[in-house]
Amino acid sequence: MRTESKPTIQDVAKHASVSIATVSRVINNQGGVRAETEKRIVHAIKELGYVRNAVARSMKKKETKMIGIIIPDINNPFFPLVVSGIEQQARKKGYYTMLSNTSESPIVESEIINILVERGVDGVVITTADEYGKQFQILQEQGIPVVALDRRINEYNFDSVLIDNIDGAYQATKQLILQGHQDIAIICGPHSTTPGRDRFAGYLKALSDYEIPLNDQFVVQGSFSEEGGYSATRTLNELEVRPTAIFSSNNLMSIGCIKALQDLEWRLGEEVAFIGFDDIEIATFTKPKLSVVSRPMNALGELAFQLLHERILANEVFSPRNYLLSPELKIRESCRLGNIRLNHKRS
Amino acid sequence: MRTESKPTIQDVAKHASVSIATVSRVINNQGGVRAETEKRIVHAIKELGYVRNAVARSMKKKETKMIGIIIPDINNPFFPLVVSGIEQQARKKGYYTMLSNTSESPIVESEIINILVERGVDGVVITTADEYGKQFQILQEQGIPVVALDRRINEYNFDSVLIDNIDGAYQATKQLILQGHQDIAIICGPHSTTPGRDRFAGYLKALSDYEIPLNDQFVVQGSFSEEGGYSATRTLNELEVRPTAIFSSNNLMSIGCIKALQDLEWRLGEEVAFIGFDDIEIATFTKPKLSVVSRPMNALGELAFQLLHERILANEVFSPRNYLLSPELKIRESCRLGNIRLNHKRS
DNA sequence: ATGAAAGCGCTAACAC
DNA sequence: GTGTTAGCGCTTTCAT
Questions:
Q1: What is the largest CA-CA distance in chain B?
Q2: Cα angle: B285, vertex B334, B192; to 5 degrees
Q3: Where in this chain does the record put each HTH lacI-type domain (chains A, B) (predicted)?
Q4: Which of A14, A52, B289, B325 sits 20 to 30 Å CA-CA off A248?
Q5: Which stretches of A150-249 are assigned E, i.e. beta strand?
């Protein structure tokens, strides 16, 4: 494709009849170059269409000004929002972000980490697809700063910015209880993930605090996906005694759940109340509108970059900082008592 | 941070008592190394925690195996879906993708392009925020292959993978007409963008083919955003004679439009029919369900990478290929006649 | 099968 | 203010 190879700093120097050192000075705005000389050089750069080779530069300077962002699911709207927060802060500080998507595959994640390390990123923000994996070893060995976002990384002492999932689930469940519900189901995410486990724990805690016995039938599992929420809801619908309220552990699951409710003609707000983890676009389009636990996506991203940046600049090791951000319960309509007939078995 | 600097190929060579050339051979699986020697080297690599420095490698080889993807709005679900298509193909061919988001800012886009060029990406797929900008100059000069995705790039002969927006809008409008509507409004996107103009053109064409005079009042403008759709809908609602059908030019606008309809108590499916460009999550949650023009996101991405890849491999210039993919009309409920009272002025 | 050595394009220390 | 020069870590030709 490329015929004549790209011009280098050498070519520019020759063209402007100066040394490469001088050219380098003007490229990097280091000053100390006579105005006239500079003009000649700038002109030569224009004329030749010279572009600084960042690869050579990085090689020399041992820094790339790139940070890697690794997310598990680019199609889950939660992540783009978080990414926007990171990007924004990074740009301000002169860092360029490389975003990669693992599609929840630990194998892909591992590959990506290796590539980023080889490419010499200055740091990485990651929402891992495998909290217990060994893929982080290389990052630690190379001393590359890492911030774990939204999902904990076990056995490594990285900084982390997490959401208080337990509290979020607790608030949601409590709200349902205060509305008079006793038969509250939970659609759980995978117990292999922190959010999966923690949201279940919050649910359990609320039940226990209000002395409502746990009914195993009301605890259903699924993957963090629309399909997961859909089939879980089906299962719930087939129970002899159906729950009067559902708490869904994740945005995608909520969508699946609401779809199932429609398909099964299990009437939201009339026969069953609902609260979901994460705000979703459809929440205000359903009737009744969905109450949700909302996470501060942007803040999550901004904080993550900030922590990362501090570590990149620091030249000594210091102990990990672990942040736990609180989600916010957004009460709309779907958790209201309405005219839901409760199952008054134990009242 | 990093205390002892990272091990290099030199260190490995020393540790295994061989030359760096031999180490390089085993790192790159080039064969021609005695099994026993190789074992020693592999062992040294493990022991030292050596990682190949891709920066140095790229510098030497003049290829990075990285391609850049530039999108204008990571929070518009259309793009993550396209990106998934690109990523998937790229990974298969051994390319790593770097995703960047411009947030529709031509300035940011320009910066990103420069960074990618400096970093030596092997190619770029871009949905530009500025179809007429000069930011592509550098790509052309450097001979870096480019594929324009979803938005045309004028004045440069890059490959392109576009959607037949005219046809999509035509189909939608036609459908509305066939349902008996005459007073069909369009919520237009910015005329500075190809999709904005083309979708309007398709609307116009359908009207003309069916001999329905254009009513200027039914043509409202907005940015490709929720807010754009929302305020456009407000405007339509304030007309003395309101339209009986609305065609919305973009997914985000559709969301804004539907929200406005709700807020204004302008009843969808009863007082006004609707078709929107792009399928959206909420489409099946509204009552009635939304009819939409759906684009093949994944195919778009896959094709884009394929074209790019061909160009990266080719060692001669050839003329640009321009693909136009057809969108598909998904008829659900919102465009049905239902019990909408049409304004029978000219029937 | 292995090694020596010449760069790739740049930065920065040092000389002038 | 400007030039010379020594690498950064790697791949690759050419010897051996």
A1: 93
A2: 95
A3: 7-61
A4: B289
A5: 159-163, 184-188, 219-221, 245-248
Distance CA(B140)–CA(B146), nearest Å, equals: 8
B91 touches chain A (CB under 8 A): yes
CATH of the domain at A189: 3.40.50.2300
B320, part of any domain? no
Q: pLDDT tens across B224-243, in order?
A: 999 999 999 999 999 999 99
Instruction: Name the residue with tokens 């007309």.
Output: B239
Give the total number of structural domains in chain A.
2
| Contact flag A259-B284 (C-beta cutoff 8 Å) | yes
CA of B59: nearest nucleotide by C1' is: C8
Assigned domain for B256 exists: yes
Q: Does any domain span residue A321?
A: no
Question: Last residue of a domain, which of A34, A51, A68?
Answer: A51
Is residue A169, in this structure, part of any structural domain at all? yes
Domain range for residue A32? 1-51
Is the CB of A282 less than 8 angstroms away from the CB of B281?
Answer: yes
| pLDDT tens for each residue of B310-342 | 999 887 889 999 999 999 999 999 987 656 667
Structure tokens at A214: 């746990």
Using CA atoms, how far apart are residues A95 and A114, in angstroms rounded to an integer? Answer: 20
Q: In chain B, at which residue ranges do the beta strands (DSSP E only) sit?
A: 66-71, 96-101, 123-126, 146-149, 159-163, 184-188, 219-221, 245-248, 273-277, 291-294, 322-325, 328-330
For B57-98, how does the pLDDT look when each residue is reduced to its tens digit (9 = 90+)? 999 998 899 999 999 999 999 999 999 999 999 999 989 999
